[in-house]
Amino acid sequence: MKLAIQEDMLPGETLAEQFKNAEQLGFAGIEFWSFGLEDRVEEIKKTASTSPVKPSTICYGRRRCLLHPERGEREAAMAEIERYLQIAAELGAVGLVVVPIFGPPLIPDLSPLADSIELEKRLLIELLGELGRHAESVGAVLILESLNRYETHLLRTLEDAVEVCQAVDSPYVQTMADLFHMSIEEADISASIEKAGEHIHHVHLADSNRKLPGLGHTDFAAAFAALKGIGYDRYMTLECGEPGQNAPLKGYYAQELPRSLDFLRKFL
82, 145, 185, 186: which is the annotated catalytic residue? Predict the structure, then answer.
């Protein structure tokens, strides 16, 4: 298992400084946000080419919605996701992290034909089948992320996402374990990881309060043991924030990251 970190948590004023700081801290990868990424691809490739630290993944973020009721919006989301899958492949990253929908359903309830959730799942499986073929053609995985009940209504557990992955039946459409969201939604984080097994292609790390690992009550020892048990050997990316702040504080992370990394390495 390899530790990575999201770019906005890394100290450094330039990309080169961030890569250097990531190396010094012992990270193997950096997860990039999709916003503004298209203009930075060559710079990232050039910087990564001389560093042991590599792009791990791309986070699609809150961009377009795959499950929008308007066809034009869905098609725009598909085209954008395909573009970022291509960029992920160019960067040598594992793939693109995608949340199908934030918030409540946008598609109307058509009961007794089908309710909103059933329609969303059927539509999502169809769209992911197409995206999976594109992902395979470029060589990057589409990684479905489950959130918690306060951020989405649809995929909220690993089991929810695995059900969709199995219906799509593509090795290029998989899911991930986010320990922060799991601390809210899963009755047993370790058991959920073990059940999801080979469908887990990425991991996000934050404690139960969204702070750095070691500052909450998540059982990282048990979670890491479960990941080892399923043979997981890919990136685990720090995705943390301070409650009450609009954005992560790089000065705070510069000071606190070494302590949290020492905590995590006890379980690696």
Answer: 145
